[in-house]
What does this fold into?
Amino acid sequence: MNSNRPSADFLNRPPFANPLANQMKAAQSFSLQGQDPPQEVPAPPAEPGAAPGPDDQKKKLLDSITQLGQTNVPQLESNIYCMSIIGQVEGHIQLPPQNKTTKYEHLIPQLVAAEQNKKIEGVLVVLNTVGGDVEAGLAIAEMVASLSKPVVTLVLGGGHSIGVPIAVAGTYSFIAETATMTIHPIRLTGLVISVPQTFEYLDKMQDRVVSFIARHSKISEEQFRELMLRTGELTRDIGTNVIGADAVKYGLIDEVGGLGKALQKLNELIEKSRNEEKVLQ
It folds into this structure.
C-alpha cells in the first residue's frame, strides 16, 4: 500500500490533475459539512464612459488601416483637408481586387463635405495615379476646379493619363522633381463597333480632355496635342512622358516642389482668401 501512494499523489498534481474533478470533490466536501460552496464573484461591468482597453484601440487601428489605408495618428485639428488619389481611378466598371484603385464615388462626397464644412479653408490633393476611367477622372477634375476654396495639387510618383486633368484642376499645382506625367490619346477597351460614329465619339471625348487641360493650365491646345500624338518616346503607345521640370516648362504644372512647398502655398492662398472676405464684409 505504501509503495502505491507516491504514484497516486503524483497523478493528483498538475499537469495530470483534473480541475473539474477537484471542484466536484470540494463541492461534495462542503455539502457533507452542511456548508454552501463558495460562489465565483462576477467581474464588475464596464462603466459606460470608460476608456477603451489596449485591445480595442489596436483593433480600431487595424480596421482603419484595412478599410482606409491610413491610421489615426497624428490626430490634430486642421483647416486643410487632404485628399489622395492613388493607383487607378475606378469608374463605372469595378476593377479586379488585386488592382490598387481610387473609387470616384468615394471622392465626390468628400469634396462636397469639404466645400460645406466651414472649418475647412483649403484642400490639398495628392496624386500618384496611373490614370483610369476617363469620365470618372473628368468628374473628379470638374469637382476640384469648381470648389470655392483654395486647392493645391501635388503630383508624387506619377500623374498619368486622366490624372493630368486632375493635376491641373487646382488653384496651384506642384510636381515632385522625379515625378512623371504620361500624355497619350484616349483608348477604348471592350466591345468596339467599327463605324465612323465610334471615332467621332472618341474624338469628342478627346476634345473635352484637351480643352479642360488648356483652360486650367498654361499650355496651349496645339502644344498639348503635339505632345499627345508624338511618336518614338513610348514603346507601346504614342505620346510623351514628361518629367518634373519639363512639366513646368511646358506649362502643365506651376512649380516643382514637394509637400512643404505645397502646404506653404496653400496657407498663402488661404490667407489671401481670408483678406478678400474681410474686404467684402
